[in-house]
Design brief:
Shape: globular
Oligomer: single chain
Strand content: under 5%
Number of helices: 19
Largest sheet: none
Order of helices and strands: HHHHHHHHHHHHHHHHHHH
Number of strands: 0
Length: 395
C-alpha cells in the first residue's frame, strides 16, 4: 500500500461519500415512483406492473437505506470531534428532531390524504382532513399506516434515536483508549479482503438467530431493522476513523463486485425460474446482497468519485430538504397523472421528472428564502450560511 493510497486521514472530506449520499437520495425518487408500477403495497398505484422495475427494486431495496445510514455515521463521527456532547445533542435536535416533527405534522399529511382518497376511504377536502382526521391516531382499514405517520421520514426518526442512544460509544472512540483500540482494529481489518467478510459475522449471526430479515419501519416493533441500521451506522462512525479501510474497499472492489453480482444473479434466478437454487433461502441471499453491494459501491466510488465540483457542492446543500419533500411530491403528482391515460414508461418518466423539478423549485423559490423554513427543513440559517461561505473561501 503506497503513501498516496492512505493520504485521506481522518477529518479530510471524503468526497466519494458525498457523491454516494447525493446519488442515493436522488435514486429514492426513482424507487418511490417505481413503487406505483409494481404489485407491492404503496400509497397509490398506477395500474401498471413492470417486471423490469421490480427486478431492479428487488436489488436496491436491500441496500439503498443502509448506504445512507453508513454515510450518516461518517458525518456523526466527524461532528463528535468538533463539539461537546451537549452541543452535539442540541445539533441533533435542530437538524433531525425539529424537521422530523414538522414533516410528520405538515409535509407527510398529503401522502395520507391522497392515499385515503385514492382508496375511497374519505371524502375530498384536504384542510378538513388535516384539521379533523389526521391527528386522531386512527388506522383506517386498507391504509399503509395510521394517522399521523412519519412514512418516509422513518429514516430521520431512526437516525435521531440511534445518535442519542449511541452517545456512550461516540465518547469512547474519542478517548485515548478508544483511539488505540481503533488503530489496532484498523490495521487488522484493512488486510486482505477482511473488510468484505468480517461485517457478515454479525449480519449472519442475527439473521440465523431471528430466522428472517423482516423490516417493519415501526419504531416500537422493528428489532431486526434496528440492528441492521444501527450496525451499519456504527460502521460509518468507525470507518471514517480508520482511513486505511477506505483504501481496502477500493483494493477489493472487484471481489465485492463478484459477490454482489453473484448474489443478485441468484435472486433473479430464484425470482424468475424454478431451479435447484430454490433451496437457498431468499432472506439469506438478500443478506449477502446487502453488504456486498454497499462494499462494492464504496470501493468503486472511492476509485472514481474522489473529487468535488460545483454540482456536488450544490446537491449536497439541498439533499436534506429534497429528501423531506420528495415522497409527498411524488405521490401528489402521481395521483393526478395516473388518470391521464399515458402508457407505463411515459407515466413513470413524467412523475419522476416532475418530482425532481418541483422539489428543486420549492427549495429555491420558497424554502431557502425564509429562515423559519430553512430551520424546519434542516438548512443553515441565512446568516450562518454566509459566515460558513466566507470562512470556506478564506481557508
Amino acid at each position: 500500500m503506497t503513501k498516496e493510497n492512505i493520504n485521506n486521514r481522518f477529518g479530510a472530506r471524503q468526497h466519494f461519500l458525498d457523491w454516494l449520499r447525493v446519488l442515493a437520495f436522488a435514486y429514492l425518487v426513482l424507487y418511490h415512483t417505481g413503487m406505483m408500477f409494481v404489485e407491492w403495497n404503496f400509497h397509490i398505484e398506477s395500474g401498471h406492473d413492470s417486471s423490469f422495475l421490480r427486478s431492479i427494486m428487488l436489488l436496491s431495496s436491500n441496500w439503498r437505506l443502509d448506504l445512507l445510514f453508513l454515510v450518516s455515521g461518517v458525518a456523526i463521527s466527524v461532528m463528535m470531534t468538533k463539539m461537546t456532547i451537549r452541543e452535539f445533542l442540541w445539533q441533533r435536535v435542530i437538524k433531525l428532531f425539529i424537521p422530523a416533527t414538522f414533516a410528520i405534522a405538515v409535509i407527510v399529511t398529503p401522502q395520507s390524504y391522497y392515499e385515503a382518497l385514492f382508496k375511497g376511504l374519505i371524502e375530498p377536502g384536504y384542510w378538513q382532513f388535516w384539521a379533523n382526521q389526521y391527528f386522531t391516531f386512527t388506522w383506517l382499514e386498507g391504509m399503509i399506516a395510521p394517522f399521523p405517520t412519519y412514512n418516509h421520514m422513518w429514516y430521520v426518526v431512526y437516525l435521531f434515536t440511534y445518535t442519542v442512544i449511541l452517545v456512550p460509544l461516540f465518547m469512547y472512540i474519542n478517548s485515548e483508549n478508544g483511539k488505540r483500540t481503533l488503530g489496532r482494529f484498523e490495521n487488522w481489518l484493512s488486510e486482505g479482503i477482511r473488510v468484505l467478510w468480517v461485517p457478515y459475522i454479525l449480519y449472519l449471526a442475527v439473521f440465523l438467530y431471528t430466522g428472517h430479515n423482516d423490516i417493519t419501519h415501526a419504531i416500537n416493533d422493528d428489532w431486526f431493522g434496528h440492528f441492521i441500521y444501527a450496525y451499519i451506522l456504527i460502521m460509518g462512525v468507525l470507518f471514517v476513523r480508520m482511513p486505511k479501510c477506505w483504501q481496502a474497499f477500493e483494493d477489493i472492489r472487484y471481489w465485492s463486485l463478484t459477490l454482489a453480482l453473484t448474489s443478485y444473479g441468484v435472486i433473479m434466478i430464484k425470482y424468475n425460474w424454478n431451479t435447484p437454487l430454490d433451496v437457498i433461502p431468499w432472506d439469506f441471499v438478500e443478506m449477502i446482497i446487502k453488504w456486498s453491494w454497499v462494499a462494492m459501491l464504496i470501493g468503486f466510488a472511492r476509485r472514481y468519485l474522489s473529487f468535488a465540483n460545483s454540482a456536488l457542492k450544490y446537491c449536497n446543500s439541498i439533499v436534506y430538504p429534497f429528501f423531506i419533500l420528495h415522497q409527498t411530491v411524488t405521490i401528489v403528482i402521481g395521483y393526478y397523472i395516473i388518470d391521464w391515460g399515458l402508457n407505463g414508461p411515459m407515466e413513470f418518466v413524467v412523475i419522476a421528472a416532475g418530482t425532481y423539478v418541483i422539489c428543486l423549485l420549492l427549495i429555491e423559490i420558497v424554502i431557502k428564502r425564509l429562515n423559519i423554513l430553512r430551520l424546519l427543513f434542516g438548512l443553515k440559517l441565512k446568516k450562518k450560511e454566509r459566515e460558513f461561505a466566507l470562512n470556506s473561501s478564506s481557508s
